[in-house]
Amino acid sequence: MNQEDLAFTPALEQARLIRERQLSPLELVELYLDRIQRFNPLLGSYFTVTTDAAIADAKAKTEMLAGGLEELPPFFGVPISIKDLNSVAGVSCTFGNPALLNNIPDFDDGVVTRIKQAGFILLGKTATSELGSFPYTDPTGFPPARNPWNLEYTPGGSSGGAAASVTAGLCAIAQGSDGGGSIRGPAACCGLVGIKPSRGRVSQAPAGDRISGLAVNGPLARNVSDAAALLDVMSGYITGDPYWLPDPETSFLSNTKEQPGCLRVAYTTSISPLGDADATCKQAVLDTVKLLTDLGHSVEEKSPDFRGLVQPFQTVWQAGIGAAGLPTEILQPLNRWLLSRVGSAGEYLQSVYQMQVVCRQIVAFFDDIDVLVLPVYLHSPIKVGEWSHLSPEDIFANIIHWIAPCPAANATGQPAIAIPVGFDDNGLPMSVQLIGKPTAEATLIRLAAQIATVKPMDKLPDFADVGVS
């Protein structure tokens, strides 16, 4: 296998090659570090590369293999990236703000601990929008993250660096987080599989939850099996979590090998009151529901009523900026503007109440439906900096419209998965999202695996020779 093929080899396959002593962790880490050195200046996918720590860990794991170690964790020696909203002990955590380059935690987030326990080797911290607020990744003071399929376009946000790093073969798999589409959007922009787990599936330890359960950590991967296996690694209660779910009866990875059965599927390409999907995003949904019909699922066009969700979700989302506790003067203009709009504690709690009332109605829609198929975004990816000339008010309005299909699953806590289904006329991936019943990640994973069998995503980006106009 040549070096390029190895860089794009699925993480589970890399783990198998290491277990069988056909590949060493050191070889794999050196391969990815070389690619990061060559291509990260073009892509802006990493804020911080932990070269010395990654090599030291890889050497230690390679020596353990040579010593005949037999009992290995599932991803022993496989390289991964961590989003720069999550703490890794001894590594800068900027939250997308260069004023925090010297913010070096002395602890690992719970999800990072689980990732390390699974045997992964950390390559570094990936780019995020400031505070994870925006669906593109070009925070002031850092190079913009770019989409490996077309460097003029964003890889999405806020897990844009994570998505770009996996897509470009700068890591095998990535951790991201999603508070309003921040895993699903980048997955869609970059042609990846991205899972937003159910609320309570993945711990937020050792910290708490600042925005009423909207955000959750999850995987970004090149295929459904890798994403499911990483979700297995991430999942589980840690003492003191404000939300938790029982462990599933079977692993998420095992569900990729199971048929979903005949499911009741609903779909829509319109998110009231924010509008309709553009022609490309609409066609991705229509093509997918035709495929689902051909596969024997029961499909009908209908949708929950999202109208009462928009305003309270915005209020809770904006309050998260204030909850970060950063001085106003170091924030970039859009976050400063949003912070200025944050109301009282009473207004926040009233919005949480309103959101919960609407969420009960949305979840009730799933009493008669197994899966809802939606666009991920209402229109195709924007170019890097496309909205930079607009006022904060206009940018925010554009964001709310663009991401409209995503926040409902964050508000209700339901699981959702973004899957690639083709390419548009600009050479950018097309994607759809599947939203499931509460706690029903297994159903979504089975269905996503079934779709991927029929419509495999086997094309790779050729970004090395692409210029930026």
**End-to-end separation:** 34 Å
Give the rounded overall mean pLDDT. 96
How do the SSEs run, as a string of H and E?
A: HHHEHEHEHEHEEHHEEEHEHHHEHHEEH
The portion of residues assigned to helices is: 25-40%
CATH class: Alpha Beta
Q: CATH fold name, please?
A: Amidase signature (AS) enzymes
Low-confidence stretches: none
Structural class: alpha/beta
CATH architecture: Alpha-Beta Complex
Q: Please, what is the CATH homologous superfamily?
A: Amidase signature (AS) domain
With strands numbered from the N-terminus, the spatial order across the biggest sheet is: 1-3-2-4-6-5-12-13-11-7-10
Number of separate structural domains = 1
Please characterize this protein's 3D structure.
- This protein is of the alpha/beta class.
- It has a single domain (3-454), classed as Amidase signature (AS) domain (Amidase signature (AS) enzymes), CATH 3.90.1300.
- Helices cover 38% and strands 14% of the residues.
- The protein is built from 16 helices and 13 strands.
- It has helices spanning 3-7, 11-19, 25-43, 51-66, 110-117, 160-167, 184-190, 224-234, 252-255, 279-294, 310-323, 333-340, 345-365, 392-402, 407-412, 441-454; strands at residues 46-49, 79-83, 121-126, 173-178, 193-196, 216-221, 264-267, 270-271, 275-276, 298-301, 371-375, 416-423, 429-436.
- Strands 1-3-2-4-6-5-12-13-11-7-10 form an 11-stranded mixed beta sheet, sandwiched between helices. Strands 8-9 form a two-stranded antiparallel sheet.
- Helix 6 (160-167) runs parallel beside helix 7 (184-190), helix 11 (310-323) crosses helix 13 and helix 12 crosses helix 14 (392-402).
- The protein is globular and about 60 Å long.
- The mean pLDDT is 96.
